[in-house]
Amino acid sequence: MKSELILPLLAYLLLVAGLSLYAMRKRHEGNFLSEYFLGSRSMGGFVLAMTLTTTYISASSFIGGPGAAYKYGLGWVLLSMVQVPAVWLSLGVLGKKFAILARRYNAVTLNDMLFARYRSPLLVWLASLSLLIAFIGAMTVQFIGGARLLETAAGIPYDTGLLIFGGTIALYTAFGGFRASVLNDAMQGLVMLAGTFILLFAVIHAAGGLHSAVDKLSQINPQLVSAGGVDNILSPTFLASFSVLVCFGVIGLPHTAVRCISYKDSKAVHRGIILGTIVVTVLMFGMHLAGALGRAILPDLTVPDRVIPTLMIHVLPPIAAGIFLAAPMAAIMSTINAQLLQSSATIVKDLFLRLRPHQMDNEPLLKRLSGAITLMLGLLLLLAAWNPPDMIIWLNLLAFGGLEAVFLWPLVLGLYWEKANAAGALSSMIVGAGCYTLLASLSLQPLGFHPIVPALLLSLIAFLIGNRFGHSTESAAVVSTLSE
């Protein structure tokens, strides 16, 4: 193990623990579920921007994305920039209307919103199970990324790193709740920005300048500096698929959507859109460019996902590398705590309390149950991450797509189409999930498109057809009123 790297990391983990304790002491009085899972809807613009950005940016962006850029070249850097509008789309499309309805329905989870809009218990059960299955895959990716980072950069064995990393997140999320999550997100966003600047400049300097780095890439393989990437992977259909998967489809991700019901006021939304878009742009461009240029320094890596932690060791002094180690750790931790809380909220609020509504006011039970389930989920994920694949980006994108195929149209059409009903939403969820699962499991790409494109198209058609056989609810009148 490398003590110069581990000491700054320990200091960072202590800071995370301190913020979590502070959040526990600052919990507001009132409804426990709203406080634990939404922080009593009190986020300002800066915190909203940071928590939405850091929740979206994960191990895939700090480990998997740069790994893909290392393998496929500068074309992947350009591809990554299609994610820039993600925050603007999430807050712009859902934003104010979503928050107004959530307050009116006293919604704590995304499924609360779906039930209030469609009045279908079956829809809530299907949505809850889909969310839990996809989140298990997505969080497993994050655990793998964190442990692999500690293994490569700090020399900590994978299993030991997994226990340290996973145990820390499970504990601070379980005991701190949403308020601890977003406070840590704000701090982690700043760490990620600083780390991105430091690493990118160090990589360019170590490669002898930008021009020299590009020349070296061209010598290794001319396709590394082409727009199409190695093996011409970046085809128009791939670009279109990627744009749908990691930009437009982000509107349907539950852990980002729930951020849209937890902010304080409209001023926070406007500030969050501006700040969040700037942060996403800097982080995406900086990390992917560092990964692509890193091949000029480390041309022979066999596992692309190791490019960022390996670069840290080669281009940064030990203490600086230890400080930077906190940046990808922050990206991973912020995504896991959001998904972990959302999974716990789904089990407690959407499943347990739907079966036992008389326990709604039993706050001592809910406190114990929420903390225990969050902790238990974290520990189960440790087991799931024990045997990792070589490139985690594909597993992460698979989970992303599954969530989008299930939630995108019921969310968007439920907000903006007053005639939308439960029959349409259920049809969309079933067809979207079934189509995506079938195509992804068989590795089928109709006309060269990623499975998310035909899955979203067919789920939209299923929504329109199924909607003809259902009836609108009273909630549709509320949506119609807000649209005027």
In short:
With 484 residues, the chain is mainly alpha-helical. The protein has 21 helices and no strands.
CATH class group: Mainly Alpha
Q: How would you describe the shape?
A: globular
Number of helices: 21
Order of helices and strands: HHHHHHHHHHHHHHHHHHHHH
The number of E-state strands comes to 0
* CATH-level-2 architecture: Up-down Bundle
Distance between the termini: 62 Å
Name of the CATH superfamily: Sodium/glucose cotransporter
Unreliable stretches = none
Would you tell me which CATH topology applies? Sodium/glucose cotransporter
Structural class: mainly alpha
Describe this structure in words.
The chain is an all-alpha fold and 484 residues long. It has a single domain, classed as Sodium/glucose cotransporter (Up-down Bundle), CATH 1.20.1730. Helices cover 76% and strands 0% of the residues. The chain is built from 21 helices and no strands. α3 runs parallel beside α13, α8 runs antiparallel to α16 and α19 packs antiparallel against α20. The radius of gyration is 22 Å and the shape is globular.
Task: Give me the secondary-structure topology.
Layout: H1 3-25, H2 32-38, H3 45-56, H4 59-72, H5 74-80, H6 86-105, H7 110-118, H8 121-154, H9 158-206, H10 210-220, H11 236-246, H12 254-257, H13 266-293, H14 307-315, H15 318-324, H16 326-355, H17 363-384, H18 393-416, H19 422-441, H20 452-467, H21 475-483
Helix pairs in contact: 1-9, 1-15, 2-9, 3-9, 3-13, 3-16, 4-5, 4-8, 4-13, 4-16, 4-18, 5-13, 6-13, 7-8, 8-9, 8-14, 8-16, 8-18, 8-19, 9-13, 9-16, 9-17, 16-17, 18-19, 18-20, 19-20
